[in-house]
Amino acid sequence: MKAEQRYQPLKSHNIQRKLLDDYYAEVKQAQSRGIKTCYAIGHAPTDLAVAMGFLPVYPENHNTMCGAAQVGAEICEVAEAHGYSMDLCSYSKCDLGSSLAGPGTKSPIGGLPKPDILMATTVCNTHLKWFEELSRIWHVPLLVLDVPYFHDGLNEQDQAAGVQYTVRQLKEEWIPFFESYCHRPYDWDKLQECMGYTSKTGQLYAQVVNSCKNKPSPLTVFDTFLLLGALMNLRGYPQAVSFYEQLNAEIAERVERKFSAVGEEKYRLYFDNIPVWYKVGWFSRKFTSYGACMVAAVYSQVWIRCFGQEDPARPLESIAETQFLLTTNQGTMSRINLLNQICRDFSVDGLVMQVSRTCKVFIPDQIGIMKQVQEETGLPGVIIEADMIDSRFFSEKEADSLIDGFMEILRTRKV
Amino acid sequence: MENLRRFSEVVEDPRRYLLEWKGRTRRRVIACSPMYMPEEIVHAAGMLPVTLLGSNKTVTLADNYLHTFICHPVRSNFDQFLKGGLDFADGLVFSDICDQEKRVASLWRLHFSSRFCHFVRFPKMMHGAGSKEHLIRELARLRAALENLAGSKIADDVLRRSISLYNRTRMLLTQTYQLRRDSPGCFSGDELSIVVSAAMVMPKEEYNQLLSDYLKQKQSHRLPVEDRVRLVIAGSPCEDLEPGISQMIEEVGGVVVDDDIFTGSRYFSSAVPESGDPLIALSDGYLQGIACPTKYDPKNKWADHVLAIAKQAKASGVVVLLPKYCEIYAFEYPHLKSLLTEGGIPHLLLECDHSGATAGTKTRLQAFVETLRGE
CB-CB: which of B125, B327, B333 is closest to A89? Predict the structure, then answer.
């Protein structure tokens, strides 16, 4: 194997950037072109809105752009000045801050325009509270989908009853809402078409994520984080499908020539919680410098366990089911099982437990999960406190020395 | 007062009281997560439902499992459990409240595997399509699980009697609160918080008797209204009141005339219908209940509720007790703030983490009360 020492970005990153630039241009022009927008949380079933002609807008993705542009913390401070606590989810703070700042926002794209409708689910409590605030700020309707938690130990019948409750809301509240808002019957054919694209997109992204099982891994999870953009923003459209087909072809070519994303691949690691959007490059470079390839992450798994499973023949049932499949809606035991399986499937040598400090979905049982998995796998782990958007919760110096110490442990174990 | 002393003893050391009760009655105790907990079903199964109230003790063992920026009630209850402080509990019932509670409930289950553990998937949306049916089904699931534990069925009549018993507690506490609004000088410091907390531990049969006597004595010894600044306290949604806060309010010349706190009016504000199918009745009672931001109910918002009770109690100001790291309440604060301001009711925001009220807290309370007095 010929070691290639320098990080080489995939060509597809640029293709995605162009796609997303076009998409955000469309978002900006939506109002003037008479297109209705639907603000949605990242994993919301937006196919339901796309089928009725809405353009979905994902504030979470906009937040990641603010994070990457190093202005996340500054925008969060705007929300804090309006009385929102510093400890709130930084995604929500950044979005509320950007909305409240109006034209004065520091957002790299000048913020998002006013939405026409809002869409949230209860999988993450924060999403609901955040969107309730948006509804209050913008005075626009909010669609809420109540998705009961998939507690460990629930039998199949009780699981099914939870799904049926969610289906009922879609049938009796969501569909009538779209019909009344748009003054026309619901377009079931279009929904099936959108779901077909979304399902295919999810499957193709799963292929990207799973390509890291190769030894050496042709890309790192930091690539997969960045390459999620098309799935999040363009699912439900054919462009997402062709993008991921192209990307997978590029990855296949890397696998073919045994290309390693980090040069000589010495260690294969797992990354926990949400990406640290303002430090993706830093984390990537830091681990690469040790020949450590971050091959797996729970964050990528969240998306491929949800999208890709849709069955257009049973639209509402299958949309409800996908919400239940989200890792964030599942009990601790299933998270432990998932992480154990990830460690096996991706041949993981160590656990990097990054703490997304302001995320109340990922952090409460994080240490409990880590302990249990370490007991079963014997893998070493390191806890690094950070946050997805708010850089005030991250100390580069501290993370740097923690990683150095952790890599030393890994080195000794290999010897 | 004899009865108040009894309530205090129980609240100060619930474990001692419960172990003694178990020894005496040979019956089961079920520890319950705070809020939205249909205790009536546990009672009808012949068991004693006891609310997890958190503790003032320093969290130590839970640090091995939970980050320090998880909210205090979740950390404190788990810590008590790890330390063996919940050895009186034969089982646990959780009702879904928020992400922190739900996720840590999973951890409890892992460590509690030998004992009964049940999760009630209480809907988040209170009045959506199918919310009520979903809750009824969840209540039936709890009933079946408890029947299985008890080894006998829960008859509808028995459940109706439990509902009626619990409604009596609610009625007595409502009367006590009415008395406080009329004659706030009758109650000192955190007295009523102790009275309500005791209801979360003691069997209602014993409690109602004690409370009824306590209320009669209070009613016959009304104290003259002093020149104090009338305040409402709101917040503190999932655990015992921040230690020392009530006394401090009193020391600086304020008096609490009403509240919307967990060990307060939130515990007893939703009565359950006593006729018809008991599970339908329970679902009606609990879905109409407390205005809590942990649920989605645009017609029953916490901020509106706090404003309403402040007006009803003719309060001069509101002390908002926001729990540190409770995201749900923090999200609601900006709205509450603007609503109170528009309603002409000044408020003071205090962030609480159960470390106890400090000298700084006292200075802020003092300044707040003095401003309200117009000094």
Answer: B327
Residue pair A328/A364 in contact by the 8 Å Cβ criterion = no
Q: Tell me how crowded residue A29 is: count the other CB atoms within 10 A of its CB.
A: 12
Kindly state whether A122 is in contact with chain B, defined as any CB-CB distance less than 8 angstroms: yes
Residue among A129, A171, A366 minimizing CB distance to B327: A129
How many residues can be counted in chain B?
A: 375
Contact: A332, B65; criterion CB under 8 Å: no
Maximum separation of any 2 CA atoms in chain A, in Å:
69
Q: Which two tokens stand for residue A244?
A: 């991921």
Q: What is the DSSP string of B143-190?
A: HHHHHHHHTS---HHHHHHHHHHHHHHHHHHHHHHHHHHH-GGGS-TT
What are the chain B neighbours of A326 within 8 Å (beta carbons)?
A: none
Q: What is the pTM of this model?
A: 0.96
Q: Which residues, listed in sequence order, are joined to residue A330 by a DSSP beta bridge? A: A150
pLDDT value, residue B223: 74
| d(C-alpha B119, C-alpha A92), whole Å | 28
Tell me B64's DSSP state.
Answer: G
State the Cα–Cα distance between residues B347 and B232, nearest whole angstrom.
9
**Which residues face A351 on adjacent strands?**
A270, A381
Residue of A nearest to B134 (CA): A165
CB A54 within 8 A of CB A117: yes
Mean pLDDT for the stretch of residues A368-392: 97
Residue B92, min C-alpha distance to chain A (Å)? 14
Tokens 């009596």 sit at which residue? B168
Report which of B263, B213, B214, B256 is spatially closest to residue B235, judged by C-alpha positions. B263
Is the confidence at residue A3, as pLDDT, over 80? no
A 171-190 → B contacts, CB under 8 A? 171-173
B106 interfacial to chain A (CB closer than 8 Å):
yes
Question: Nearest-CA neighbor of A44 among A198, A196, A228?
Answer: A198
Distance CA B4, CA A16 (A): 68
> Measuring CA to CA, how many Å separate A278 from each of A51, A71, A299, A410?
34, 9, 16, 26
Residues in chain B predicted with pLDDT less than 50, given as ranges, are none
Q: Any idea how long chain A is?
A: 415
Q: Does the beta-carbon distance from B66 to A136 stay under 8 Å?
A: no
Residue B120 phi/psi, 5-degree rounding, is: -95, 120
Distances (CA, A) of A163 to A317, A323, B127, B143: 8, 9, 17, 21
A368 reaches B (C-beta below 8 A): yes
Q: List the 330-349 stretch of B: residues with Cβ below 8 A of A.
A: 330-335, 337
Paired tokens of A63: 């937040």
Give B 154-193 residues with CB within 8 A of chain A. none
pLDDT digits (tens, 9 = 90+) for A279-331: 999 999 999 999 999 999 999 999 999 999 999 999 999 999 999 999 999 99
Q: One-letter amino acid identity for B193?
A: S
Write B46-52 long-range contacts (CB < 8 A, 24+): B46/B150, B46/B152, B47/B90, B47/B91, B47/B146, B47/B149, B47/B150, B48/B18, B48/B21, B48/B203, B49/B93, B50/B14, B50/B18, B50/B88, B50/B89, B50/B200, B50/B201, B51/B200, B51/B201, B52/B77, B52/B80, B52/B86
Percent of all residues in chain A with a pLDDT value above 70, rounded to a whole number: 99
Closest CA–CA distance from residue B4 to any residue of chain A (Å)? 37
Q: Report residue A129 as tokens.
A: 């509270």
Average pLDDT, chain A: 96
A331 touches chain B (CB under 8 A): yes
> How far apart are the C-alpha atoms of B317 and B332, rounded to whole Å?
18
Helix (H, G, I), strand (E, B) or coil at B6: helix
Among B34, B35, B33, smallest CA distance to B290 is for B35
What residues of chain A lie within 8 A of the CB of B110, using their CB? Answer: 332-333, 368, 372
Q: Which two tokens stand for residue B26?
A: 């040979």
Amino acid at B335: H
Beta-bridge partner residues of A385: A355
